[in-house]
Amino acid sequence: MKHFLLLSLIFTAVLHAQTPKDSEKAMANLSSSQREFSNLPEEKRKEFIQLYSDAQRFFASKRVFETLETLNKAEKIFSKSVELLNLKGSCYVEMRIFDKAELVFNEALEISPNNPSVKFNLAECKFVSRQWQESHDKFQELLRLMPVNEIAMSRLIEFKILLCKKKLGLHQEAKILAEKYDHQDDSPYYYYAQAALAYDNKELVKGDEWTARANRIFRDPNILAPWQDTMLEYGYIESFLGGGDETE
User: Fold this and answer.
1) I want to staple 117 with a disulfide (CB 3.0 to 4.6 A). Which of 5, 110, 122, 187 is the partner?
2) Mean pLDDT across the chain, nearest whole number?
3) Residues whose CB is less than 8 angstroms from the CB of residue 145 and which lie 6 or more positions away in sequence, other chains included
């Protein structure tokens, strides 16, 4: 789970504004919580940004406990950061404490109601805890909010919706979604959708071939990681290794 926002550039824009006019322009784009942050003493803002940056680095290295410790220090400086709460919730997801993660994500959503990253993480919480209907509905809602140019994230969301439909018995709808894009698409969607169909038909070698194709074409681990994580969370990798998926 690596789905969380980077520290808002607006925060640093205010912090490093070169002229009063630059500062006024940055301030005009701030939410109420960001204005509160901008009113902190400069030293506190710098300390918060450094702590948050350290937390991101720990999280990227899967040092979850150190991430939480660092976030707790940052939270004492400023507790209304959506980015901080989103990262904190992601830590609880890594620890499989889903109820606590949802509480934190909902707290972030109160500050930023239409934040796509937070909404994604809430839907993902339902996905990894196998609450398929709720996950399906939340991803559908999020997909309607996604900007047209956010192709990579939109495709991943659609793939998760496809998998939810399969668990909900909506096989025809899932099959239609699987054929929505072809190999010319700029995402691994087509290959992973075909792999999902193959695995469901117990064609394990064929499914593995589809994911191998995706790996050869999209070589960047950062592109492939969320798709591979999705297959793992859904149960396909355990099924391939002989562990079996949970009973339908």
Assistant:
1) 5
2) 85
3) 114, 116, 119
- Look-up of token digits 């969370």: 233
**How far is Cα 58 from Cα 54, in angstroms, rounded to an integer?**
6
Q: Residue type at 88? A: K
Query: Where does residue 235 fall: left (phi above 0), alpha (psi -120 to 50 degrees), or beta otherwise?
Result: left
pTM: 0.79
Q: Return the ∠ at Cα 162 (arms to 199 and 167), rounded to 5°.
A: 70
Q: What is the DSSP letter of 185?
A: S
Amino acid at 238: E
Can you give the pLDDT at residue 21? 54
Arithmetic mean of pLDDT, 158-166: 96
Pair 161, 140: CB distance under 8 Å: yes
